[in-house]
Amino acid sequence: MSSTPIASKIIPKAARAHLDPTSIEYTSDKQRNAVAALVQEFTVTPQLLKDIKDNFIGGMQKGLKKDGETLAMIPSYVMGRLDGTEVGSYLALDVGGTNLRVVSVHLTGGGHINTRQTKYRIDESLKVGDAKALFDFMAVCVDSFLDEHEIVVRGDSQIELGFTFSFPVLQTSINRGTLISWTKGFNAHGLVGKDPVAFLQDAFNRRHVHVRVAALVNDTVGTLLAYAYNHPETVMGVILGTGCNGAYIEKIPKIEKWKGGAIVDEMIINMEFGAFDKERTILPLTMFDNKLDRKSVNPNKQILEKMIAGMYLGEITRNILLNLIDRRLLFEGNVSADLNQMWTFETAYMSTIEADNTPTLHVTRKILESTLSFSSTTLNDRQIVKTVVELVGKRAARLSAAAMAGILEHTGAWKQKAAIGIDGSLFEFYPSFDTDIMDGLEEVFGSEVRQNVSLGLAQDGSGVGAALCALLAAKHASKDASDN
Ligand code: BGC
């Protein structure tokens, strides 16, 4: 059991060991020019960062006006804030990344949370098979979790569950919605246009699992709620992991398309910002990004996500390396069988390569030779690989900064003390991702932003957040009942 997991952490991770491309001993002018061209293509200049931020704010405003815009700006039906005094026990099911997690969450008041969780790996075939089979698998996992943790449901009672389903879902109530599209390599058929909660509840009912889906939550919304439980000044929840997205607190009068009532004056908006710039008007897309997009299961969708998220950075890097190999500017024109396969260059390797501060880059060598089966590499090869990795990683962090700056400017939140809770492997493990984001924010707002805005790791926020959302749903339900 772990206690109070949603604390801001100082992350003990490595910093980027920057390699200055001008210090490389190039093997030819052609190689030097190729690297210089990549540096130019992948650098997000301060001016471009600001232009993207402005364009992003325009997208937010459009999405708040009507449905169907590129930035979906989905009202989450989560109203009101938590203050840490809440108590209760809930179950959470978190689906949307590599693993599925079942979490039992016990809120003991005073900002304290106890959690127990089990992770289950989702087989690739389930991700692209029949949706019903995927939801049956979810019900089986929850059932076995209840067994494993000896959680007994008596009589006709049901356990309340918060369901974190981290895909673009247009919500129609706190526990209803329709899937707009799949992302992150999922493509199970039969769910687009339908309600994931109905599928899950049906799977529970068929298996006689006594669980009621009380709330449907995006992971960004969960992260925001979880972080706010002990950081009341939280204004935003962000995921920088397999996918990317953000949620923030909006004033209801600014959500022009919102036709529902309101018990308070603000609501959390799930932005679905990974979909930004579908029109390809502002993002600095390269041929390597285009190749990745064309070969993805969702071409022409999630354009910003494909430049930022952990699922994709390794593949962009692989595309660049292959191009340099084909031009005989790297590894003497030879490719290893492993690097020749899609998705083999993992984003986790990039984290390791970024942190490699050895003079001979022997950590990078280990990845290339032991993991990716290159028979030998030269120092020059390794330096080029490291430079490419740095370019792709830094661009991702600076594009994340542009999006976050857009939200901070739109809400004016940067002018006062504001906390941003962030979850996901990139933010947690990727060297200097946090400092790159902060540098980007400073370029937009000036140094004052460092005093006001803090970025913190909201580890496992989405699971806890789903439980908090189930709690808020119960609060609203009892308020509605007493009002009637
Ligand atoms: C999904 C979002 C989610 C994000 C992070 C994206 O692919 O569309 O709903 O918040 O990934 O998990």
TrEMBL record:
Q: What class of enzyme is it?
A: transferase
- Pathway it acts in? Carbohydrate degradation; glycolysis; D-glyceraldehyde 3-phosphate and glycerone phosphate from D-glucose: step 1/4; Carbohydrate metabolism; hexose metabolism
Which Gene3D superfamilies does the record associate with it? 1.10.287.1250, 3.30.420.40, 3.40.367.20
Q: Which domain of life is it from?
A: Eukaryota
How is this protein named in the record? Phosphotransferase
Task: Tell me a GO cellular component.
Answer: mitochondrion
In this protein, which residues make up the domain named Hexokinase N-terminal?
35-229
Q: Does the keyword Nucleotide-binding apply?
A: yes
What InterPro entries does the annotation carry? ATPase_NBD, Hexokinase, Hexokinase_BS, Hexokinase_C, Hexokinase_N
Residue span, Hexokinase C-terminal domain: 236-471
- What Pfam family does this protein match (any one)? Hexokinase_2
What molecular function terms (GO) are annotated for this protein?
A: ATP binding; D-glucose binding; fructokinase activity; glucokinase activity
Give UniProt keywords alphabetically.
Answer: ATP-binding, Glycolysis, Kinase, Nucleotide-binding, Transferase
Q: What is its EC number?
A: 2.7.1.-
- Has the keyword Protease been applied to this entry? no
Family annotation (CDD domains): ASKHA_NBD_HK_fungi (cd24018)
What is the species of this protein?
Modicella reniformis
Give the reactions, separated by semicolons, that this protein catalyses.
Answer: a D-hexose + ATP = a D-hexose 6-phosphate + ADP + H(+); D-fructose + ATP = D-fructose 6-phosphate + ADP + H(+); D-glucose + ATP = D-glucose 6-phosphate + ADP + H(+)
Q: Which GO terms describe its biological process?
A: glucose metabolic process; glycolytic process; intracellular glucose homeostasis
Q: Which family does it belong to?
A: Belongs to the hexokinase family.
